[in-house]
Amino acid sequence: MQKLDGKTFNVVMDNIDKLKELFPEVVTENKIDMDKLRIVLGEHVEKEKERYEFTWNGKTEAIQLSQKQTTGTLLPCKEESVNWETAQNLYIEGDNLEVLRLLQTSYRNKVKVIYVDPPYNTGRDFVYKDNFHDNIKSYTERLEENMKSNAETNGRYHTDWLNMMYPRLKIARSLLADDGILFISIDDHEVDNLKKLCNEIFGENNFVALLPTIMNLKGNNDQFGFSGTHEYTLVYVKNIEKIEDFYGLPLSEEDQKEYLLKDEKGFYKKGATLMRTGEAGAREKRPKGYYPVYVSSDYTRMSVEKMKTDDLVVYPKTKNGKEMSWRRSKENLANTINEFIITPTKDGVAFNKKQRLDEDMVNGKKAKTLFYKPSYSSGNGTNEIRDLLGGRYFDNPKPVELLKDFIRIAAREGIILDFFSGSATAAQATMELNAVDKGKRRFIMVQLPEMTDKSSEAYKAGYKNICDIAKERIRRAGKKIVEEHQASNGNDSLDIGFKVFKLSNTNLKEWNEESLDLEKELLDIVEPIKAGRTQEDVVYEILLKYGIDLNVPIDITNIAGKTVYSVGMGYLLICLDYELTLEQIEEMAKRNPARIVFYDEGFKDDTVRTNAQQILKRYGVDDIRVI
């Protein structure tokens, strides 16, 4: 029987495995022979001492922090949750670096959208002080003291911020799906450093945009020189080759007036050209997109096959003769040939897509790089919380409409992650969008439970930390959304629930990284669970270490007198009882699980332990683990 590893995803070994797959000759006993690797890479190795690079004091440790494993866990907190049994959303309290590490095994390559609004490093922001050796222990200790801001007089002002951001973004990238999208809000203080950081982590080729985002059109006259109106939103993708394009934003009434042309299918306007532009559209990049299109001499017909001897032959070329490619394959264009407008030009012929009103009412219009709507005003974010909770309980929350638009252009379904979630605007935005378009998005909010100031409105109203504010906001926003939308659009499946989890050290003594008197542990206590923890706590830790979604359904059942947790409709069975007999194990095996987990000391004796594996394998259970 295999021991279930108490640690999270091993990034270093994963990297070694990838190298081993690509270059097996450079790996010896799981160690990389750097000299052989240089030979394999040939001339593509940087040897110069002076070269372009982005570095700072502590970068090596920041990289190591992103690779470090943890034995921590997330404790379920049902009493603070909403609709625990059916909710697919998560709210997680804890240091986001540790939480991201814990999520790696279960959510690696599964997150569709990440939005974060990190500390802007204005000199008043709190910058997380990570502890390389034991971040959970230091996190627990930090909760007992007041958080400290990163003063501009600090000699490591930018360095501390970069060391905080690097490991979090590095792990965040591993959580993104291949077609995943990242949005980061930032201001002038660190925008240059953040872009360089993201270029290194995500790759310059996966940079999409740096959006000036208008938050205060009237301007902030307190700023020196200019009245400030905007901040920025950095946009990156995990792999730009995996994304055709972003979705559009809803059409306004003014937008709809532009669709003046009409045919038998309805109103349309002149849309994008059939020929690709830019370097990505060159023939050598997309050779299958280079083929002739034929046009009748009177410019009323186009086809992919020659119809008449006097048909004009048109290839995708620029006016300078550079060979490009068509946006559609030959087969696709043949099936949609009537969806293009033919326009004679002085350089030849142009083809433009019929941009149809009914389609764009569903798909929206392409967002512009200047992000502005009156509803993006920062004052709206404050008012939204006041309307829901009855007071000004949070400083500078993002407005819901801004985050709704980010999510709109990125995803119709999938996981929306915010690991600097603050007042949980992203959670409300996700629920509101789902209510309108019946999308299948779900959120994961992560937030450090920073204490509210005792003199603040929030503290006096009973909100002792930021998480208290955010959870109540989600509860009230969910109720309001149901009242406003569910009755009108019949979306009975709308999910306004969320499961609350809280970061803690491991439930099991054996997996504890703190120094322990092991002999005393073995002599004094047989029970492997720490005092105050439950079997259910252990079950969720097993899911995290196994790599299973925390929202998977869990049923508690009795099999032959033993309590068994059936995970994912019986896909995984977990039995944490003692004195297990062969008869009981066989009854569990008859349920045909793919996986099963026991306590290492849970068997009645060594004979049962030895024979249990044979019984389980006979029933087709190959993945048998003990903790």
If you had to describe this structure to a student in words, what would you say it looks like?
This protein has 627 residues and is α/β, with parallel strands linked by helices. The chain has three domains: 53-249 and 378-502, Vaccinia Virus protein VP39 (Rossmann fold, 3-Layer(aba) Sandwich); 253-363, no CATH class; 526-626, no CATH class. It contains 19 helices and 24 strands. A nine-stranded mixed sheet has the order 4-19-5-18-17-6-7-9-8, with helices on both faces. A six-stranded mixed sheet has the order 1-24-23-22-21-20. A four-stranded antiparallel sheet has the order 10-11-16-15.
Give a quick precis of the structure:
By secondary structure, the protein is of the alpha/beta class.
Contiguous runs where pLDDT drops below 50 for at least 5 residues: 515-525
The Rg value, from CA coordinates, equals 29 Å
CATH topology of the largest domain: Rossmann fold
Please describe the biggest sheet, giving its number of strands, its sense, and whether it closes into a barrel: 9 strands, mixed
Mean pLDDT: 90
How does CATH name the architecture of the largest domain? Answer: 3-Layer(aba) Sandwich
Shape, principal axes of CA atoms? globular
Counting H and I runs of at least 4 residues, what is the number of helices? Answer: 19
| Coarse structural class | alpha/beta
According to CATH, what is the class of the largest domain? Alpha Beta
Helix content: 25-40%
Query: How many separate structural domains?
Result: 3
What proportion strand? 15-25%
The count of β-strands is 24
User: How are strands sequenced across the largest beta sheet?
Assistant: 4-19-5-18-17-6-7-9-8
What's the CATH H-level homologous superfamily of the largest domain?
Vaccinia Virus protein VP39
Distance between the first and last residues' Cα: 10 Å
Describe the oligomeric state of these chains in a short phrase. Answer: single chain
